[in-house]
Design a protein that fits this description.
Helix content is 51%, strand content 9%. With 1368 residues, it is an alpha+beta fold. The chain is globular, with a radius of gyration of 40 Å.
């Protein structure tokens, strides 16, 4: 412990103060001396130049030139030496006496040998050196090795890095000496500033590793440039502020009584930067400045979020793209706003240009709010569309594999957003232009403003406070149950998707009204007032109006949950409390929105600190925690100042080593982690074959279970955004963290970006079987507090449906709260059975072998290559000895105890004993083939089945590596065959290599299917005695279930593709355990508890773990910072850190969820308004209009009969049509019956059946054949032209359901049927019918109530007609 502390002080504290120099006792004397003299030179050289020579730019130029030459020489030599180590030859020589082989040495080597004559008796040791070529033909002998060189100097792998380091060192020298010449430093501060210069330059040669701000273990090449880059920026800013302050060229302005950009203000900022530069050693010691790329990302993200109203970003490229996009839009809007302000404003007149500006502002803000900050999403959509076009041009037979449906769904969601914006943005611009030009925002003042503020406050209070509180598990921490409960709340086990409740619809509609009506009206009202005021007084606020309007609109579109608080405070504070402080409402609202975002951060930080250090619930994880607790009390004031500082700069406030002492870390983006430590599943697709067979990589539980978190991520990607908009997770903002807890799944969901209709998140899955500390915290978040009856030290009980005093008090002192207890997601239920207990008895193993043999026979008979195998000469020649009457296979692997066809008289398996047991099964399987073959006792099929069954059982014995009858070898061999490790060692089985499909498509699936049949045997032991039942069961399992090894990539693809059932045999070797488990997965709906965690608690604990493990090098696996603390969930949060800091079993990539894929939200808000949907709506409206006109133009007709042209004869009175050509019903193509149906019972949509063929005689046109997508019923309607016949002619009925349509009309109908997704659908049904009324038979359409009633009659008539048709 003492040596580790000394190492931290030497390599961490002292090296951070000096820029990297420290004395390392483990290194050579030369290395330590070189570092010391190098540091002294960099420190003393500028100090002596400043003290000895008169100040001038020439001295600064000479200093920077010397530094450039010095660094260039060192970098060149270092780079050449590393290149020599990479490519150079190693020359070896032996230190020995002059022997026969010593005469070949050169002169220098001979002298060295003569000097070492006293060591003749010692063993000769090889000595190596490298040749360092100085000039052609001239080289130096270098006895240095690479490790010694790395200890001496840092390595720069590329030439560009070396050039950049030399340029940075020169800039540090020039800018630093320039500030010395300006006279900013006096006395001892000159030496301090020279020390800062030396530390920045020295870090380019030998940096601090690891740095206090380094996010990774090992050497971090980016952190090397942090000090010089920050120093150059600081020097440039000092020089700029000094020049601006002395010149007075900037025009000062006042805001809230503070004068900005005055001379005094600029010089004050300059002095602050000077102090900041002098404090560089301390700043880098505490790690208050991040590495350069993180700083750039944070800076751009904060500017875009707080100034332009953007969303959080996911990478430095994303932050740059988002900021450039916002700046371009602001520049476009600035031109229109400037022109509008310069235009004349009347008392009741709004310039047209300003109305244009308002329309563009709202439309562009809406579009920006619906787009993700990540440009790779749009690029992926473009690439995906291009790949589809290329695939359509070059059609090839696709490989047989399970397709992942999610990428196509996500690409469709993005394209749907773009298509919708193509319609909505112009529409919103036109509407906004009309409203603004109507002068409503001028004529109704000031009453309109007050009404809008009150309306926004009331709607916001109901939407974002009252409804979420009533839906919480513990409303206001007083009630014991939620007031507004979901339908699943009282269910013990959820069996269906979550039902849409009335209060969820209310919540969604209130949000819609708030986002698209109230806040746009508030912003446009304030913009009009501001522009009118600016136009009368001064005209330099056009840029501010553009930026403020865009920021407020984008924020209201993306995150309206906290806007009502900001708006109400701004109104009350500046209109009623302190009106003399107010500038204008737009300025007040803009700056209050920035201030309130920081105030929310401060509130969360203070809650975290007070909860964490509360003395009545403190949990000491180590002796240091007990020691630090009393010392943290006197520093509470400093802690409060740190909280304010960290809230302003968005930095985490982390506990040191998990104790009660808090320090401020460096600023981080909302994403938090600077590196992407996304876990990668280990399976057969990314490991070598030899490794798979010998060591079985990825066999641990964590790697195998990570796929379930990946599937959970997919489920959340499909539904998270819609569920958030329905209020199922309560209130949420950017950066919030939630924990999903189920029976075995515990995942932390980090919400990163929130847009208008999209959410970007990251999921971190914890271990299934966690540590003791994790289990205690899981119990804390899953146990209820309703039964607590304590009040202080007694138990008087509590009121009905209320919490007790102790429970209510305890819930208020937690850094988390239960947001929902029955959150439903689609997932897999996992059941694992111990294979040893299921195969312990010989009889059970015999059943497995029997099913193994029958499965092989089944796959032989089902194979399309069976005829080829039966005619293959190589296979038949190898199986010919089996036809002998005395043939017996007496392999030692066969056993009387487990082989049902074992002949104890022959001590093996004979063809006759095999046929006695399995011949009936072979014959039955053969009879189920389309073209059965000969299946007698001596037929080739029986011989092939006999040979394959013998081979399969022998392969099982070979894989077991043991001839004993014990269970462990049997399970080992079964698992080897299950994962496909077939080792053919017997010469009698080498015939199988004639076609490897015999192993891949017969024996391998046979052993897997036998395990499933063995599982089913326990539920119905005698059911599979019937061959038909067994055959149908195997066929059903083939179609509905995947049986595979978990290391096979098909397993992962099947889970991600939502395969209904899966089965696998898992071999677990963990912590000395060696067991086999049969894993059974069934897709169903899972119930989760949603726990909302204080986001500052998560950020602070994550930052503390990173500092402790990377900088302080605490590698203790039982360190105090990961011990359980139920009030903060310390163990669960710390274990969810990115690897290797934490130990989650799965960390997802940044994943974006779109609201368009949520069917329940679409049923509330309707589908998107896109060109395609408008087109389909127009077509359906035209069809309805045709029906109405047809009904009105014929006497006695009605709209319900308009499919028949509106005549007096409908399908109920004229069920058949006369034709001169009849076709047998058997020759008609059969309707295709699909198996997709909606979850909720509702009227069934009728879809067009496009499988009819044929022609009708002259005078008869088309009849439409319809089929239900669920029941497959044929329903028929007469066309309008059929009514041209005289009603007195009674047409004879058809002989069956034969009615035909011309191909052209069928194609047209099929084209329309694929586009029936009308606007504003009230249900989740796909609009597929030719006429709109057939899709929503229970919905009031364009024709009103009468149409609905008549439609019900028509559907009933059709059902009657269908029942008649089915009789035929």
């Amino acid at each position: 412990m003492g040596s580790q502390a000394l190492q931290i002080l030497r390599q961490g504290v002292w090296a951070s103060l000096t820029g990297g120099w420290y004395v390392d006792p483990h290194q050579s004397t030369f290395s330590n001396c070189f570092h010391l003299y190098l540091w002294i030179f960099l420190l003393a050289f500028p100090f002596l130049l400043y003290m000895a020579l008169p100040p001038s730019l020439v001295v600064a130029g000479v200093y920077s030139a010397v530094v450039a030459v010095f660094f260039t020489a060192i970098k060149v030599v270092n780079y050449r030496l590393h290149t020599m180590f990479d490519l150079g030859e190693i020359v070896e020589k032996k230190q020995a006496s002059l022997t026969a082989d010593a005469f070949d040495l050169d002169h220098e080597s001979l002298q060295e040998s003569q000097e070492n004559t006293l060591m003749i008796e010692e063993k000769a040791k090889p000595k190596q050196y490298y040749r360092f070529w100085v000039l052609p033909g001239k080289w130096l002998r270098v006895r240095y090795d690479r490790l010694a060189l790395l200890a001496l100097l840092d390595r720069n792998r590329r030439v560009g890095e070396n050039v950049f380091a030399v340029v940075l060192a020169s800039l540090v020298a020039f800018l630093g000496f320039l500030l010395l010449l300006q006279g900013f430093f006096r006395d001892i501060w000159v030496f301090q500033f020279c020390l800062v210069i030396a530390s920045c330059q020295y870090s380019l040669l030998k940096s601090v590793q690891p740095d206090a701000a380094s996010p990774m273990h090992g050497h971090n090449w980016i952190i090397v440039y942090s000090r010089p880059v920050y120093f150059c920026l600081c020097c440039v800013m000092i020089w700029i502020f000094d020049l601006s302050g002395r010149s007075g060229s900037l025009q000062p302005f006042s805001l809230y009584g503070v004068t900005f950009f005055s001379a005094h203000f600029l010089l004050f900022i300059r002095d602050m930067l000077i102090v900041f530069a002098l404090c560089f050693p301390v700043i880098f010691l505490f790690g208050l400045l991040p590495q350069v790329n993180t700083f750039v990302m944070c800076l751009l993200e904060q500017i875009d979020m707080h100034i332009f109203g953007g969303t959080a970003t996911t990478s430095p490229l994303s932050s740059l793209f988002s900021l450039i996009r916002s700046v371009l839009v602001a520049a476009l809007l600035y031109g229109f706003c400037l022109g509008a302000i310069n235009a004349p404003w009347g008392d009741a007149h709004v310039p047209v240009l300003f109305s244009v500006f308002c329309g563009l502002l709202l439309a562009l803000s809406y579009h920006l709010s619906r787009q993700s900050s990540d440009p790779t999403i749009l690029w992926s959509v473009f690439c995906f569309t291009l790949s589809i076009m290329l695939e359509n041009r070059t059609p090839e037979e696709p490989p047989v594999e399970i397709k992942d449906p999610l990428p196509e769904k996500l690409h469709n969601s993005v394209k749907e957003i773009l298509h919708s914006d193509l319609v909505m943005c112009p529409l919103m611009a036109v509407i906004t232009f009309a409203i603004s030009a109507s002068t409503v925002f001028i004529a109704l003042q000031p009453a309109l403003s007050l009404v809008l503020y009150i309306l926004a406050g009331v709607v916001g209070f109901i939407t974002h406070y009252l409804l979420p509180q009533l839906r919480k598990q513990l409303p206001w921490f007083c009630l014991a149950h939620p007031v507004l409960r979901s339908r699943e709340y009282s269910q013990f086990e959820v069996r269906d998707a979550a039902q849409l409740m009335w209060f969820e619809k209310l919540y969604a509609w209130l949000q819609c009204v708030e986002k698209y009506f109230i806040y746009p009206a508030v912003v446009l009202n304030s913009l009009t007032t501001e522009a009118r005021t600016v136009g009368q007084n001064h005209k330099d606020r056009a840029l501010f109006i553009s930026v403020a309007g865009m920021k407020l609109l984008r924020t209201s579109f993306c995150a309206p949950s906290q806007q009502y608080v900001t708006l109400c405070f701004t109104t009350l504070f500046f209109h009623f409390d302190y009106p003399h402080f107010s500038e204008t409402f737009l300025i007040d609202y803009y700056f209050m929105s920035i201030l309130f975002s920081k105030m929310w951060d401060l509130l969360y930080k203070l809650r975290f600190v007070l909860t964490y250090i509360a003395p009545w619930q403190i949990t000491w994880g180590s002796a240091f925690h007990a020691f630090a607790q009393p010392f943290a009390v006197p520093h509470s004031a400093v802690l409060f100042v740190q909280a304010i500082f960290s809230a302003i700069f968005s930095t985490p406030l982390n506990p040191v080593l998990g104790s009660a002492v808090f320090v401020t870390s460096y600023t981080r983006p909302v994403k938090f982690w600077e590196r992407d430590y996304n876990t990668k599943r280990v399976d057969h697709s990314n490991t070598r074959l030899a490794t798979q067979l010998d060591r079985n990589p990825g066999a641990d539980d964590n790697n195998l279970n990570s796929i379930f978190y990946e599937h959970l991520t997919r489920s959340l990607q499909h539904s998270l955004c819609g569920d958030l908009l329905l209020g199922r997770w309560g209130n949420y903002t950017t950066g919030d963290c939630f924990i999903l807890a189920s029976d075995y799944l515990n995942a932390l969901v980090h919400i990163i970006e929130i847009g208008n209709g999209l959410v970007t998140f990251q999921l971190r899955g914890l271990e299934f079987r966690g540590t003791y500390c994790q289990q205690r915290e899981v119990e804390a978040i899953t146990e209820g507090v309703e039964e607590d009856e304590g009040c202080c030290c007694c138990e008087p009980g509590h009121l009905p449906h209320m919490l007790s005093f102790n429970a209510a008090f305890g819930q208020r002192w937690l850094a988390w709260e239960v947001a929902a207890t029955k959150y439903v997601l689609e997932g897999y239920s996992i059941s694992d059975n111990n294979a040893a207990s299921m195969l312990q008895v010989f009889d059970l193993r015999k059943i497995l072998i029997t099913y193994y043999v029958k499965s092989i026979i089944y796959y032989v008979s089902r194979s399309s290559k069976m005829e080829e195998w039966l005619t293959n000469e190589t296979i038949q020649e190898a199986l010919r000895p089996c036809l002998g009457p005395n043939y017996v296979d007496s392999d030692p692997t066969f056993n009387l105890n487990i082989d049902e066809d074992y002949d104890h008289r022959a001590s093996g398996i004979t063809p006759s004993s095999f046929c006695m047991v399995y011949l009936d099964w072979i014959q039955y399987c053969n009879s189920r083939r389309q073209t059965p073959v000969t299946c007698e006792r001596d037929s080739p099929l029986v011989s092939l089945c006999f040979g394959l069954c013998i081979l399969g059982r022998r392969a099982l014995g070979t894989a077991s590596h043991s001839m004993s009858a014990s269970l462990e070898p049997f399970l080992y061999g079964l698992h080897a065959l299950f994962k496909g490790d077939f080792r053919i060692t017997s010469p009698r089985d080498e015939w199988v290599f004639a076609d490897m499909d015999l192993l891949n498509r017969v024996v391998a699936p046979g052993v897997r299917m036998s395990l499933k049949l063995h599982q089913d045997h326990f539920t119905s032991p005698d059911e599979y005695e019937d061959p038909m039942v067994l055959y149908d069961a195997i066929t059903a399992n083939e179609e509905k279930m995947l049986i595979s090894h978990e290391g096979d990539p098909v397993w992962r693809s099947a889970i991600l593709a939502n395969m209904p059932s899966l089965l696998a045999l898992r071999h677990i070797m963990d912590d000395g355990s060696d067991e086999y488990k049969i894993i059974m997965l069934n897709k169903r709906f899972l119930s989760f508890r949603v726990i909302k965690v204080n986001r500052e608690c998560v950020r602070g604990l994550w930052a503390g773990q990173q500092q402790e493990l990377v900088f302080l090098r605490n590698r203790n696996p039982e360190r105090g910072s990961i011990q359980n603390a139920k009030q903060a969930l310390r163990n669960m949060i710390n274990s969810s850190c990115d690897q290797p800091i934490g130990y989650p079993i799965y960390v997802s990539p940044l994943t974006t969820s779109y609201a368009g894929g949520h069917s329940q939200l679409r049923s509330v808000w309707g589908g998107p308004i896109s060109p395609h949907n408008i087109y389909t709506w127009l077509i359906s409206s035209w069809d309805r209009l045709q029906k109405g006109c047809g009904a009105g133009c014929n006497s006695g007709g009605n709209i319900e009969d308009s499919d028949c042209g509106g005549g007096s004869t409908s399908i109920s009175t004229n069920p058949a049509v006369h034709t001169t050509q009849s076709t047998p019903a058997s020759s008609l193509p059969q309707p295709h019956i699909t198996t997709s149906w909606p979850h909720h019972p509702q009227p069934l949509p009728l879809a067009l059946l496009s499988q009819s063929e044929g022609r009708m005689e002259a005078g008869l046109l088309t009849t439409l054949q319809r089929t239900s997508s669920i029941q497959g019923l044929l329903c028929q309607q007469l066309s309008s032209s059929q009514l041209s016949f005289s009603s007195s002619v009674a047409p004879p009925p058809l002989q069956g359901p034969e009615r035909f349509c011309p191909a052209s009309l069928l194609e047209n109908s099929g084209h329309r049927a694929g586009q029936r997704a009308g606007l504003g659908q009230s249900g989740g049904l796909h609009y597929e019918s030719h006429f709109g009324k057939w899709s929503f038979s229970g919905r009031k359409g364009f024709n009103g109530t009468a149409a609905v009633e008549g439609e019900g009659i028509t559907v009933q008539t059709i059902r009657t007609q269908v029942s008649r048709l089915l009789v035929f």
